């Protein structure tokens, strides 16, 4: 009897009728002979509502107390789900994170899971109960409630699956899988049958919102397969795994000639360039940005072309959300004890567009093709850089939609089956 962990996001449990629909899906899985752990997010809009309440009292609420408040959202959804299942004759129990021993560090608002105690989970599964767990939250070593950041329920589900040695994690969302591009921007984007952990991690880091990047990191570390599915319609979804081609009996979802699996983007970006720091200062800056949950991309000056900044090889470059420039300057001043006025140069009104490489050894060829496609369309490229599994270009926000569609077509993704 296999253990299946199913995670349902906020839109999937956004109303009582949706909760009842999910309950029926869970029952179908039980009837297939599986033991089931269900991980739930708060009902759609609830986290935003609770955050707004706190900000009415204090625009920057105390981080510990904000986590205590936000963690209540999942408690509502798991209890309602348990009620729905029990009503249908299914033995079920709802448990918040500290009841099953989800231990995290103490970075409130962006905590990382350190350990999951499988004892309570195992006992409930042995009693043939459906276990319904509050996602997004944990407990630090001082027994404080912590939260894992936006999308954190994905990571909760993966960590629990690893703890109970589940056969698979099923992430149910409002889309039916992972696509070769955002269908809202690229009408010809296609659902991928399977994708590797490395590609999915790059996609998550560079703009795809289907899975939280930490969830993919955790799954990759412990080789726990994830299947992304829709809670609104039946389908095979997308399998995220170590060797997707082997998993699909050597039938890749990509055409043989393609070296790119997807095109993703980050909007409302800025390039921040600052003089080279001491190694210890540079490390401290990255750590503080991570601690505050600020998303950024570090650009290696030896692997990029930065068109509009002189002496770019003598600088550190960050692609960062435009509204976080002030935070970056503040952190830098604390680290270096020097004013940042005139030191940090910024370019605003930008987007970062990335193509994800399915064959890492070809990223330089891919970078050349990206630049050629954009130049042919008279799209100005502020910066182009490569990593092991991606090539990224920073362009004007106004060119984003055209650039996404051109790159998707140019790399043959329009013709995916």
Question: How is this structure best described in words?
Answer:
This protein is α/β, with parallel strands linked by helices and 417 residues long. It has two domains: 3-247, Carbamate kinase; 260-415, VC0802-like. It contains 14 helices and 19 strands. Strands 3-6-2-1-9-11-12-10 form an eight-stranded mixed beta sheet, sandwiched between helices. α1 (16-31) links the parallel β1 and β2.
Features:
Carbamate kinase, VC0802-like, alpha/beta, 8-stranded mixed β-sheet, 417 residues, 7-stranded antiparallel β-sheet, 2 domains
CATH superfamily of the largest domain: Acetylglutamate kinase-like
Question: Into how many domains do the coordinates divide?
Answer: 2
Largest sheet: 8 strands, mixed
Assign the CATH topology of the largest domain.
Answer: Carbamate kinase
Strand order of the largest sheet: 3-6-2-1-9-11-12-10
Q: What percentage of the residues does DSSP assign to strands (E)? A: 25-35%
- Determine and state the CATH class of the largest domain: Alpha Beta
* Rg calc: 22 Å
Provide the structure class. alpha/beta
CATH architecture of the largest domain: 3-Layer(aba) Sandwich
What global shape is seen? globular
**Can you give the helix content as a percent range?**
25-40%
Total strands: the figure is 19
Supply the number of helical segments. 14
Mean pLDDT: 89
* Ends distance: 34 Å
